[in-house]
Amino acid sequence: MTDSRFPSKDAILAFIRSSTTPVGKREIARAFKLSGSADREMLKDLLRDLEADGTVERGRNKRVAPPQSLPAVAVLLVTGADADGELSARPLTWTGEGNPPRIFLLPERRSRGEDRPPTVGDTLLAKLARINDRLYEARVIRRIGSGDGGEREGRILGVYRPSAEGGRLQPTDRRHKTEFLVLPPNRGEAEPGDLVFADILPAGRAGQPQARVVERLGSTKEPRAFSLIAIHAHGLPTVFPHAALREAELAAVPALMQREDLRDIPLVTIDGADARDFDDAVWAEPDSDPENPEGWHLIVAIADVSYYVRPGSALDRAAYERGNSVYFPDRVVPMLPEALSNGLCSLRPGEDRACLAFHLWIGRNGVLIRHRLVRGLMRSVARLTYDQVQACHDGRPDEETAPLAGSVIAPLFAAYARMAGARAKRGTLELDLPERRVRIDGRGRVAEIAVRERHDSHRLIEEFMIAANVAAAEVLEGRSMPGLYRIHDRPSMDKMEALRGFLAGIGQPLGKSADLTPDQFTRILRKVAGTSHATLVSEVILRAQAQAAYSPDNIGHFGLALHRYAHFTSPIRRYADLIVHRALIRTLGLGVGGLDDETLGRLAEVGEHLSRTERRAATAERDAVDRYTAAFLADRVGERFGGRISGVSRFGLFVRLDESGADGLIPVSTLPDDRYDHDEAAHTLTGQRTGRTYRLGSPVGIVLVEADPISGSTLFRLADSNG
C-alpha cells in the first residue's frame, strides 16, 4: 500500500474519537482495511505521534482514546440522580485534571426476586460507553459496595437531628430509607433541624452507616427551606460569577439605529399573575393586503437577549451552565442575572426594550402564509394577566383592559379563533392535564394548593408563540442554517403495543396504522371526555409519548403535528431560544450577537446538555412542589380524602387527591390481605385470591397516614378496610 492510500491522521483521530470505548491497533486496521507489515508500521508510528502531541492517550492493553478518557470497564461511585431520575456516577479514582466526566447509569432489566437496583452511595463495576469527552453511559456489571449498609462513599444532603449517640442525618432523598449516624466530632457547625451536606463514611459499630457534616446550608424551620432542598439536591447553580454580574450591570438599551421602530405599536404582554419575567409581547390587526382577504397580521416581539449576552462572554458561560431558569413556588433560580431577567430583557410597560420581532401573516384558514423577522425597539403599553384578558373578552373589563378592549384585545382573540381552527384541522395531541399551583403567603407558608385554571387567553398566547416558533424553524431550514430544533419523536413501537392493549380493554381501540397521527389520540380523548375514564386515558396516552428534546437534526414535532419547530420565544429563561436567536441573526445579517463558529461546531452536544438541564429543572420544580404539598398536608394526618389512582406499580398505588392534586403512595403491604400481581400494560394490581383489581384512574377513598416535608413523601391507606 502506498502512502496515498493510507488513511490520514485526521481520519484515524476521528475514528478514535467516535468510538464509545478505547480502541486498539486491530480495530483501527479492520476499520480502514489495513494489512501487511508496512501498514502496521505506519499505523504504529502514527499512533506514537498522536500520543506524543497529547491528542490521544494510551491505556490498558495499549488501547488508545482521547485524553483523560475513561476505560471500557471501571469502578464507579453512584453520586446522585439527574432531573429525569437517571442515576449519575463518577470514577472511584480520578487522576485527570479538573472534574471527571459525567456518567449516567443505563436502566437495568430486573426480574422479581433480583437484588435491588443501584442507589446513591453504591460502588459498582460497570462497562462504559463514551458519548463525548465529558459524558459517558454505564451498564452495571455487578455491585461491589453496598449503598445501604456496608462501606459507603460519596456525599449526601440531609437534615441533622440530635440523638443519644450524638446526631442523626435524615436524607432528603426519599429513596434513602436509612438514616446516618453523626458522631459528635463529625457534627461540624450543624444545629438541630439544619439542612446540611455530609460526606458518607465507612460503616461503624454494628454496620451503622455514618456521615460527617461538611457544609451547613440553613435551617429547615424556615418555610422557604423546601426550595432550598430541591436546589441543592439537584445541583442547581445559584451564584453568578462576578464577571457575569458586572456585564449585566453595565448593559444598556441600544439606540434605534438600524432597528425597526415598533414603539408606536400597542404591543402587550400577557402572563400569569405570578410571572416574574416578561419576554414576549403580542399585537394583531386585520391584514390590509387584498391578496389575503380575512387574513391577519400579527407581531410577536421577543426580548433581544442576544444583544446583551454575547457568545463566549462570562454571561454566556453562566447562562449555558444553567441551561434554563427554574421556577419554585417562592423563588426563581434565573438563567440570567436580575439586571437582565427582571430588568433590560423584561418587556416592562412604558419602557424602551430591544427585541427580535416576527411579523406573521395568517391566512383566512388560520395557516401561517409568510413571515418577516426584524430587530427592533419596542415599548409595551400594558402588562396584562391571563385572568384580566379573559375577563375583558367575556365582557368584564377592568380599568386597565377597558381602553384596550376593542383596539388590542378583540383583534387578538379574532386572530386566535382563525388559528385555533387551523390547529384543530392539523390534528394536534390535545392533552389538557391539570397543573398544581402552590400559593405562598407573605410569611413564606403554603396558603393554598389548587389546580391552575386554563382559559382561552392561555391558548391564545400559546398559539401565537407556536406560530413564531414555526417561523423561526422555517427561516433556519430555508436558509440551511444549523440551529437547535425542538423535536418530539413518535411513540416507540413497544409503548404503542402496550397502549393499544390498554385502550382495547376499555372499549377504545386504536388502529394499527403505521402512519400514526396525534389526532388519533385526540379523537379518543374526545370520546372519553366527561366519563370516568377521561383522566385515566389522558395519563396513559401521555406516558406513551416520547420525550421532547433539543437537537440540530430536525425530525419534526409529533405532538404539535408540525414538520419544523424551534424554541424562539423565551430567551430570558431558555438557552435553547438564545441559540435560535443567534442563528437567525447570523443567517439574516441582523448585526451583532450572531451564532459563533465554536458553538456551531458542537450543536449536538449543546442540544444534549440543554435537554438534560431542562429535565433537571422539571424534576427540581416537581420535588419542591411535593415538599410544599407535604408541608401543607402535615397537619391533616388522619383525615379522609377522595382521589384517583394516578399510578400503579408492583410496590403499591399512587393516588392523586381531588382537592389539591397532591400525589401520595398506598404501599402494597397495606392493601387488603392478598398476593397482588402487577400488570404493567393494563396498569393494574390484581389480588390472586380475591380477584380484587386496582386500576389506573379508578376513584378511591383514602386516609392520610404520613406527610413528610423533608423528603416530600406522602403516604395513604385505603379508607375502606375491605378495599
Question: Could you describe the 3D structure shown?
Answer:
It catalyses: Exonucleolytic cleavage in the 3'- to 5'-direction to yield nucleoside 5'-phosphates. GO terms for molecular function: exoribonuclease II activity; RNA binding. One of its GO terms (cellular component) is cytosol. This protein is an alpha+beta fold and 723 residues long. Helices cover 29% and strands 27% of the residues. A 5-stranded mixed beta barrel has the order 3-4-5-7-6. Helix 5 packs across helix 7, helix 10 (405-426) packs across helix 11 (456-478) and helix 13 packs antiparallel against helix 14 (534-544).
Would you identify the regions where 5 or more consecutive residues have pLDDT less than 50? 110-115, 147-153
| Rg over C-alpha atoms, rounded to the nearest angstrom | 28 Å
Strand content: 25-35%
Q: Helical residue percent?
A: 25-40%
- Give, in spatial order, the strands making up the sheet with the most strands: 3-4-5-7-6
Tell me the number of helical segments per DSSP (H or I, 4 or more residues long): 17
Mean pLDDT: 86
Q: What is the CA–CA distance across the termini?
A: 78 Å
- By secondary-structure content and strand pairing, the structural class works out as alpha+beta
Number of strands: 33
Please outline the major beta sheet.
5 strands, mixed, barrel
Described by the principal axes of the CA atoms, the overall outline is globular
